[in-house]
Amino acid sequence: MSVQLLYKDGVLTAKMNGEIDHHAAREIREAIDSTSQRVKPYCLRLDFSAVPFMDSSGIGLILGRVRLYQFWKGHVVLCGLSSNLNKMVELSGIASVAAIERRAG
Amino acid sequence: MKPFNKVEFSFPSNSVNEGFARAAVSAFLSQLDPTVADLTDLKTAVSEAVTNAIVHGYRDKIGFVYISVKLFENGKAVVRVRDKGCGIPNIEEAMEPLFTTGGEERAGLGFAVMQSFCDCVRVTSAVGRGTAVTLTKYFEARE
């Protein structure tokens, strides 16, 4: 698992590469949080286009970031969800707290 | 009915092994010629069960996680994930969506995902002795 972070105009994009499970989630969380807490972007874009697999640890990861961004009234956007990731996202009902961008990228 | 093939393996409950466990199960299941969607469903359920064993079963220590996979002629696959960890005092409560003892970063969806992605989920547990989760899924033959 690797995470690429790109900050531009108040938006932090985290492009994740690899499978997201409980093991990988910690690494991703640490990478995103250390930068987020420093620059406090108004928006976090989580890019899943290079994530072939995700279990419910990914939902925990998203929820945790939604909570973190609420501290400075920021929000979280999910993008690049494949059909199998989307199944997990729908089951979790997380769309009520994070916006979903339907086009990959 | 007897399985036409089966495999058993075990590994220490280090989280780095989660990926290995689901990949190994997934590779073995490919003998049933499943669709990618069905295979991903069971792979996800296995990942949830293994994570539960590692995060909850062996909360404060490292122990072994035991996995068996049985394949049947009618396309049925049975995956059993077992630990010798702390056990679950109240299985009904543990299986409720959003219930978690894993802290803020855990969604509490493990059992909900297993139930939604498999045809049958059975859990047996004894406090202080461990937990076994049995996942059953039917793979339809592809035309």
Keywords for this entry:
heterodimer, A: 105 residues, alpha/beta, Transcription Regulator spoIIAA, five-stranded mixed beta sheet, globular, B: 143 residues, alpha+beta, Heat Shock Protein 90, five-stranded antiparallel beta sheet, 4 helices, 5 strands, 33% helix
Low-confidence stretches of chain B: none
> Structural class from helices and strands of chain A?
alpha/beta
Which percent range fits the helix content of chain A?
40-55%
Q: Give helix % range of chain B.
A: 25-40%
Computed CA radius of gyration of chain A, to the nearest angstrom = 12 Å
Outline of chain A, from the CA principal axes? globular
Distance between the termini of chain B: 24 Å
Q: Which percent range describes the beta-strand content of chain A?
A: 25-35%
Based on the coordinates given, report the CATH architecture of chain A: 2-Layer Sandwich
Strand order of the largest sheet of chain B: 1-2-3-5-4
In what order do the strands lie side by side in the largest sheet of chain A? 1-2-3-4-5
Query: How many structural domains of chain A?
Result: 1
> What oligomeric assembly is this protein in?
heterodimer
User: Which runs of chain A of at least 5 residues are low in confidence (pLDDT < 50)?
Assistant: none
Instruction: Quote the average pLDDT of chain A.
Output: 94
Could you give the topology of this structure?
The complex is a heterodimer of chains A (105) and B (143).
Chain A: E1 2-8, E2 11-17, H1 22-39, E3 43-50, H2 56-70, E4 75-79, H3 83-92, E5 99-101
Parallel strand pairs in A: 2-3, 3-4, 4-5
Antiparallel strand pairs in A: 1-2
Helix pairs in contact in A: 1-2
Chain B: E1 5-12, H1 17-29, H2 36-57, E2 64-71, E3 76-83, H3 91-94, H4 110-117, E4 120-126, E5 130-138
Antiparallel strand pairs in B: 1-2, 2-3, 3-5, 4-5
Helix pairs in contact in B: 1-2, 2-4
